Amino acid sequence: MEANNLNETLFNEAKSKGIKYIHLQFTDLYGSFRTITTTIEHLEKNMSDGIGLDGSSIKGFTNIEDSDLLLFPIADTFKQLPWNERGARVTCEIMRTNGEHFEGDPRYKLREFLERVRKDFGFEYFVGPEIEFFILNGQRPADNANYYASLSTDKYADLRLEIGDNIRHFDIIPECFHHEVAPGQHEINIRYDNALDMADKIQIHKFVIRHIASKHDLIATFMPKPFKKENGSGMHVHQSLFNINTGKNVFGDETGLSEIGQYFTGGLLKYAKLITAITSPTVNSYKRLVPGFEAPVYIAWDYGNRSTLIRVPKYSTKSCNTIRIEYRSPDPLSNPYLVFLVMLAAGIQGIKERIEPPERISKNIYHLTEHERKQSNIDTLPGSLEEAVNEFKKATFLKNTLGVRLYDSLTTVMMKEWESYASAVQEPYSKDITDWEYEHYLYM
Which pLDDT score is estimated for 1? Predict the structure, then answer.
């Protein structure tokens, strides 16, 4: 269907449903949703001409002397809000006023790289994230339940189901609900999808979780480590590559991981340090990435071993088409568009360079001594945002993938984040959670 006809159809459909207001949503470098609300009367024009955006007011986007950008709604992401029939929301991409794509738009950069991988390799990239989060009453956990708590002790089991009902409205299929390890911690997994659609879905999923929690006078936070003595929240990402011609998963063969799967794993492990600034993008992220709380800090891999950075689930190896690689360090405050982009870029480098992964580590790495880890050549992820950004600066292949503009913007924004934390008055290098962190990350 032609763009103008599509816009007219969407406009008429929205009007017939009684929609009056449309929330135009886009994602900034931090991974946060930003919103401009317009009216039904302007929808058609916004679809064809875009709506003005001040890029200089978004950290890392544009300078004040070159600030004019345009938001363009993506028609097939348009959905009426289940909790307010007067409103709808739609995902947007960002354009320059000269008609070019804005090179700092995370969604566009992921879409661009996925298209390149399809063209050059014939692969479609699928991902399945596991999103953990906390439900708080004020700044404390809203419940005291434990891992896989039963319904009789799981105070907010019905709240998770309410979230499930609402995300279905946005064509997001929930697959698994449960209470997580820490008090107030929850997980709702959604069905895997291609990386671009999944990044869109994660943003909507988080949007819905926050809204439903707020409706009950609670706070949903995706902060990686809100409590010092409790497990943090992760966003483990299961990944697979499918051949676009045959529809087959290229990661699997009769032995387990195929040669391509091995090379992809090798690339992820070789470049793990270089992509950590994207998968763990906040100061608080590195309070989660410490030994002793099931956090994946050790750069190693194995089948079924949850102490390694990369785990190949054993139950996924029963079929060549279901086998997948789980990358365990990302956290739910990360930008999903950028996370999927850099993980895929590292894996593709592994394929291009034919990088063999190291020997599998079949022991519990958390129980090994430092000497034993050195003997097995087990390295660790960066221990701070500052260290991670310095590693990121070494990633020439990422500069080529992200583009110089986005790569430099990310480096600058993350280093300023570290400097802001380091200059905070309240014990800046403390391992405890500071007021500064709550102010910065609680609502991101």
Answer: 37
- Report pLDDT digits (tens) over 41-71: 887 787 788 999 999 999 999 988 889 999 9
For 175-225, write each residue's pLDDT tens digit: 999 999 999 999 999 999 999 999 999 999 999 999 999 999 999 999 999
Fold of 3-102: Ubiquitin-like (UB roll) (3.10.20)
Domain residue ranges in the chain: 3-102, 110-441
Show the 3-state SS of the chain.
Answer: CCHHHHHHHHHHHHHHCCCCEEEEEEECCCCCEEEEEEEHHHHHHHHHHCEEEEHHHCCCCCCHHHCEEEEEECHHHCEEECCEEEEEEEEEEEEECCCCECCCCHHHHHHHHHHHHHHHHCEEEEEEEEEEEEEEECCEECCCCCCCCCCCCCCCHHHHHHHHHHHHCCCCCEEEEEECCCCCEEEEEECCEEHHHHHHHHHHHHHHHHHHHHHCCCEEECCCCCCCCCCCCCEEEEEEEEECCCCCECCEECCEECHHHHHHHHHHHHCHHHHHHHHCCCCCHHHHCCCCCCCCCEECEEECCCCCCEEECHHHHHCCCCCCEEECCCCCCCCHHHHHHHHHHHHHHHHHHCCCCCCCCCCCHHHCCHHHHHHCCCEECCCCHHHHHHHHCCCHHHHHHHCHHHHHHHHHHHHHHHHHHHCCCCCCCCCCCCHHHHHHHCCC
| CB-CB contact of 214 with 223 (8 Å) | no
Q: Does domain 110-441 have CATH number 1.10.1670.10?
A: no
Sign of the CA dihedral 249, 253, 257, 258? negative
Say which residue the tokens 């029963």 belong to: 318
Confidence of residue 322 (pLDDT cuts 50, 70, 90): confident
Cα distance between residue 37 and residue 248, in whole Å: 42
For residue 260, pLDDT beyond 80: yes
CB atoms under 10 Å from CB of 209, counted, come to: 24
How much is the pLDDT for 56? 92
Alpha carbon 284 to chain centroid, angstroms:
16
